[in-house]
Specification:
Shape: globular
Structural class: mainly alpha
Number of domains: 2
Helix content: over 70%
Radius of gyration: 21 Å
Number of helices: 15
Order of helices and strands: HHHHHHHHHHHHHHH
CATH superfamily of the largest domain: MFS general substrate transporter like domains
Largest sheet: none
CATH architecture of the largest domain: Up-down Bundle
């Protein structure tokens, strides 16, 4: 395999991951204003606030559910047909999903939004393919560095995605911008990505393997996670933490609209600001912290601090104060997430690292899938629920982790 091709492959993988995260982030500032606005053609004007938030939750969850099953299917297909073929097909599918979303908004057809999000969610399962491609081309000494590129792409996408989505939907910025504009742009970027893969991404797999397609891999991983006595507690902590933070990020915009009358541009700016602080934490702050403290020490402090910061967001009566509190949420989240993953890895035996981290990813995907299913109902009852429930789950995570540390010397 030519070493000169590795930078081109890595750059293409980086852009593909970034685009996946962009697609997730770009809808954050759009979906709540789109469905909660009584003038939207997607829902009848007679629809109640509770009905609107319920439909919003279903639309959000459709992406996560599809991604949960798409990861194992696309991963198996890439072993059988090659990484490049599956990446081309998945990015083309992603582009089609964005086009369906834009068409659904323009024509007022809610079902097209669901089809588009399900298609995009399933194709976002290509993250498993990209991890496999990186493993194919990386030496053991460079694997950690190359996997770090995926994390960087995620962070960059979460900063730019919400901000771009908010601005591209802002008709006060450009008169012809509307809710569909971000999806036209995302579709165009997907087309660029397809071209880049065709031109610069050489096949990385050396020997294709005919593996059976297993739709149930994620479900089996969830079962295995909680049957593992040694790791059951940390998997529970990971689930509770991700569930709480997902509930916050998916429905916080409803609170912002209800209390502060935020529009899509303001929501996008706030979430981009939050993502920037997470990126700064994981890029700059975490290294000096980890030189002084062990992962379990950081988790025990950071998780309850997130709960406190989330509850503090209930206090301000002016939106400006929100921008002062959000960095604390972001910093403690940025410290916690990688340390939970590191703890999972440290507790696992060396010869099953890949298996255990794969199970942890399934646990996290499951935790991301559940909040939208119930969140739409709960936030319809009280707009403060995204903050209250997220804080409660953070405190539960902290409690379970503290008990686990006390009972085991493995930490």
């Amino acid at each position: 395999m030519s070493r000169s091709l590795e930078p081109a492959r890595l750059a293409t993988i980086f852009f593909t991951v970034f685009l996946d995260m962009l697609g997730i982030g770009i809808i954050i500032p759009i979906i709540a204003p789109l469905l909660l606005n009584e003038d939207t053609p997607l829902l009848p004007t007679s629809a109640t606030f509770q009905e609107r938030t319920f439909i919003m939750g279903l639309l959000i969850s459709s992406f996560s559910i599809a991604q949960f099953f798409g990861s194992s299917v696309l991963g198996s297909l890439s072993d059988r047909f090659g990484r490049k073929t599956v990446l081309l097909a998945s990015i083309t599918g992603t582009m089609l999903g964005y086009l369906l979303l834009g068409m659904g908004i323009i024509t007022g057809q809610l079902w097209l939004l669901f089809v588009g999000r399900i298609l995009d969610g399933f194709m976002a399962g290509n993250l498993a393919v990209m991890y496999s491609a990186i493993a194919d081309i990386s030496e053991p000494s460079s694997k950690s560095k190359n996997f770090g590129l995926v994390g960087a792409a995620f962070g960059l996408g979460f900063v730019i995605g919400p901000f771009a989505g908010g601005q591209l939907a802002n008709n006060q910025l450009v008169s012809w911008f509307n809710y569909a504009t971000p999806f036209w742009v995302a579709a165009a970027l997907s087309m660029v990505n397809v071209v880049l893969i065709m031109l610069f991404f050489g096949e990385t797999i050396q020997q294709k393997v005919h593996k059976p397609l297993r739709w149930s891999t994620g479900i089996v991983n969830i079962r295995n996670a909680f049957q593992n006595v040694k790791l059951r507690s940390i998997f529970t902590v990971s689930f509770l933490f991700v569930f709480g933070f997902t509930f916050f990020t998916q429905f916080f915009q409803v609170y912002l609209i209800g209390k502060f009358n935020f529009r899509e541009a303001q929501i996008g700016t706030l979430f981009g600001y939050m993502g920037l602080w997470i990126a700064l934490t994981q890029g700059l702050f975490i290294r000096p912290v980890m030189k002084k403290f062990r992962p379990h020490q950081v988790i025990r402090v950071a998780v309850p601090c997130i709960a406190v910061a989330l509850l503090l967001l209930l206090i301000p009566n002016t939106s400006g104060t929100i921008f002062f509190i959000i960095p604390f949420v972001s910093i403690f989240q940025g410290l916690t997430s990688p340390n939970i993953t590191a703890t999972v890895s440290n507790l696992a035996d060396a010869d099953i690292q890949g298996e255990i981290l794969g199970i942890n990813q399934s646990v996290n995907s499951f935790a991301q899938m559940l909040p939208p299913l119930i969140g739409g109902i709960l936030v319809g009852l009280d707009i403060r629920m995204p903050l209250i429930i997220a804080a409660v789950f953070m405190l539960l995570a902290a409690w379970v982790f503290t008990l686990s540390v006390r009972k085991s010397s493995a930490y």
